[in-house]
Amino acid sequence: MPTTATAKQPLHLRVFLGSPGDVNDERQLALKVLNQLPYDPLLRGRVTFEAVAWDHPQAGAVMWAGLPAQESVIRSLGKPADCDIVVICLWSRLGSPIAQPDYAKPDGGFYTGTEWEYHNAVLAFEASGRQRPPVLVYHRVDEPVCKVSPKQKQAYLDQLANVEQVDNFLQACRTRDGSIPNDYNIPSDFEEALRQHLKDIVRQRLDSLATQPAQTDSVSKPKSVSNHDPIWTGSPFLGLRPFTNKDSLIFFGRGRETDELLARLRDPKHRFIAVVGASGSGKSSLVWAGLIPRLLGGALQGSADWAWVRFTPGELGDNPFISLAACWKTALESVGQTAREFADELLLAPGRLDGLVRLVLANRPDSAELLLFIDQFEELFTVVKDDCRQAFVRFVLAASGSSKVRVIVSVRADFYAQCVEHGLADVLRTGSYPLAAPGLGALQQMVIRPAALAGLAFEQGLDETILGDAGKEPGALPLLAFALERLYQKRTAAGLLTYAAYEESGKVQGSIGQHADAVFAKLAPEVQATFTEVFRELVEVDERGEPTRRRAKLSELTTGSSRHTGRDRRYPDCRDASEPFRPWSLGSGGPCRNDGEPLNLNALTLINALTKARLLVTDKREDDDTATIEVAHEALFRSWGKLADWVTQTADDHRLRRQITQLAAYWDAHQRRDEHRWPDERIVEVAQMLAHLGLRLEQFPAMEQEFLGPVDPADMLQAIELPKTSHERRAMIGVRLDRLGDPRKGVGLREDGLPDMDWMPIQGGEVTIEIRADVNKPDSEIIKTLTREVGAFQLARYPVTLAQFQAFVRECHDGQQWRLPPGLPFNLPDSYSPPKHRARHGNHPADSVNWYDAVSFCHWLSERLGFEVRLPTEFEWQLAAIGGINRHSGMDRRNPDCRDATDPSPPWSLGSGDPCRNDGKNPDSPPPKTYPWGQDWNPAEEPWRTNSYESDLGRATAVGMYPGGVSVSGVLDLSGTVWEWCLNTYDDPNDVTVSTAGAARVVRGGSWDFHAWNCRSAYRNYVVPVGRDYGTGFRCARVQS
């Protein structure tokens, strides 16, 4: 009986689907079309469909015992002749003949089920005067995959006979009126043709019914939903997240590409497919929402029984085998194995897939296979550690060669070369599938059809405007998706998407940036300040400056730890914790959570805001306690101006960070030889990178910290205070402090360019010097002692540095002659050139200076500072080094335990005398100290005291690198490092005349190339005043006014 409609009720049509089993994919697509078509904007509320198919998931046929299958279908669902439309789809076979009398052919043979269905419908169509039911015949014309070889003669002949039978049937169809034969190449073409043909038939029926009076008593009750109940609830536009298999109902526009992937998989030889495309081309969605649902629907023979899994190489860290094993955590536990154990096995033997296949395909048909969908394959090169990367490549190759496994990867086109370089060239040669940006027709499907299923409508012309704005440029797809999602959020109560909302959202090109800026602007300044701290963990930048998103543990972003460690050194009371951070459980304690990790509430607030805005996405596996966070789509790196600018500005820093990891691993693999260590010359780059990315060195792995060495000046200055710090380390610290900008007072220059001297007050006292018979023999006879009362003065904490001396040379020597301030008792000849220093760093002592250089410097500095600066006499020098006796106070400055309250002596002065009496006099005062720090010194036991020959450095360090050798007066480097010129002559210590006379002058303190006994504070040495030596420098004294 014909189906009609009233003004209040839509036209209801029953559609019979007939087809053999080789076009099961088309059957699923036909059901999809029937399910979606009532929501087409032109048909909404006007038509409903009821699919009549024996395998319909909601209304399939009941198979009666004792009846042939075809008879059961007829009894359950009715004959094709009883339906409104009949659809027949064929490819390589018609099915098996039904040897029953009712299915006999005139020639004595028997019809197959499909043949009978066709003839039953055509006879009814002719009997109704060609009105009902129209018969739509579709024929797939591409060559079917031959599943048997010509060597299997009988099977091969049977297959050819099936194809010939189909051809004969179609030829008969083409000679009969009432049939509409339609050839197609791929299933997506069939889907679109069927959709259009059904729309045409519906419009014709509606037009016809419009001219007839309503027949309310003959209307079939619709079995599908009305236009008031959308088939899709919620937003049909997913913004920046990819479509998954759960979103297949609203996934449109990639039918042809899905068919092409299926065609490759139909050939058993194709075990590996790499979907290659630009960022934002829809690679993940194509496989996840396009291909996989079709496979699970039986698009390939037996594919409905396949097991499948999707993961990314860096999903759970830098080991892709852990990501893979986590997918089957429950199954593994059922056989007594942990995911970690299984991952370790695969890492050691990536080619052994038997255990994996048995585990996954247990309880499935023998024909079942395992599909591995490895999404975001570029993470193999941006996240995965080196020792896992090649093992995982071997695993992929082994899986691709298995008869029970299929591998599909999605990879950004700009990482294709790296895939080739890492051994995937052979599988890529036959398995690459380049994915282009969708064309205008596909974009139209992506925009209009999901909206229709959700009951949405565009204001007149808005859909065309949006499509025009999107264009065809690579990367436009995520921008379009986000703009549509924002448009949905601003829909009217009736579900109308308006121009006003589209303009307000920033259109296609501006929607992401405008939305991100608006969300960010609402945050407090202290929350905004964590921008770098958060995003540095969410991005990898390659050598070309191209950003790739990185998945990070939420604990890395909400505590002071970085991707490498779990400890925040800002909170020393917070212990290390192996328990991962549980998101959103903030607790109410102090700076640390209950598990010991300090919580950064500002970073958490930023993450929450961006996640709520769908710019970041969180993930927490049900079988894993670790929550992760990542950028919703890489389009955010391009479309949010603030983030794009930050990526550009820090691209070099990200590259350097990755380079450090690679070079540190190389250094570690090559016995950690010094020649492979990070060079001091590049330490500034590291310091700048840490500053730009808001990192601290302790956030790097211990091995990388050792490889880099010290970076932060504050940490370096703490390190030299430690006795365990080696000579080499102290030398390195000195060089690095210079390159980074030595922050210590007394080392460099003032803002006005003059030397920044750190003057230490030296209290006056009685000093005795010893004159021995042989300067080169420390135990030679003392032939004379001289005692002098020395008044208070000031002495520079450090020897004059190279930076300070070069300031003098720059001002007083024009490259050809000296221009010294007037008043110097001697003149330097024009031929007298400045010294050539061995030192190359500004905070190292100015070496290779003779006595005249030193005196000239002091004279210049006196003129520039406005007070007298000169070389110390050796009495003054010794007083500063080991102290003397203050006759006025009764205080013995040689004993650090008997100093007054203003004494600046630091704790390194480890005196051993008895305590002072109340009057300050100590009858048991110890003998004069031999070194600034004490009486005795064993360089092997106390190497931290100074840099002498025993250090084996063979060079001077920066000044102040040995605070363990500080004097009682707080002066450094008075022992070792460099010899220091004194004002007086050697032969007559009382002679402090400044002249050009050639009398040898005293040098004190020893140096880096002299033994410990030369570094004694009482040891007197001499050098002719014109002598320049790598081991000789000087320091300045300031006369007390």
Question: Topology, please?
Answer:
Layout: E1 11-18, H1 24-36, E2 47-52, H2 69-77, E3 85-90, H3 113-127, E4 135-140, H4 153-174, E5 179-184, H5 187-210, H6 255-266, E6 272-277, H7 283-296, E7 307-311, H8 320-326, H9 329-334, H10 339-348, H11 354-361, E8 370-374, H12 379-382, H13 386-400, E9 405-412, H14 416-431, E10 432-434, H15 440-453, E11 457-458, H16 462-470, H17 476-489, E12 496-497, H18 499-504, H19 507-521, H20 525-528, H21 531-535, E13 539-541, E14 547-549, E15 552-553, H22 554-558, H23 601-612, E16 616-620, E17 627-631, H24 635-639, H25 641-669, H26 683-693, H27 702-708, H28 713-719, H29 727-740, E18 759-762, E19 765-772, E20 782-790, E21 793-796, H30 802-812, H31 851-865, E22 869-870, H32 874-882, E23 885-886, E24 891-892, E25 979-985, E26 1001-1004, E27 1020-1023, E28 1032-1033, E29 1037-1039
Parallel strand pairs: 1-2, 1-3, 3-4, 4-5, 6-9, 6-10, 7-8, 8-9, 11-12, 25-28
Antiparallel strand pairs: 13-14, 15-17, 16-17, 18-21, 19-20, 21-29, 22-29, 23-24, 25-26, 26-27
Helix pairs in contact: 1-5, 6-7, 8-10, 13-14, 17-19, 25-26, 25-27, 28-29
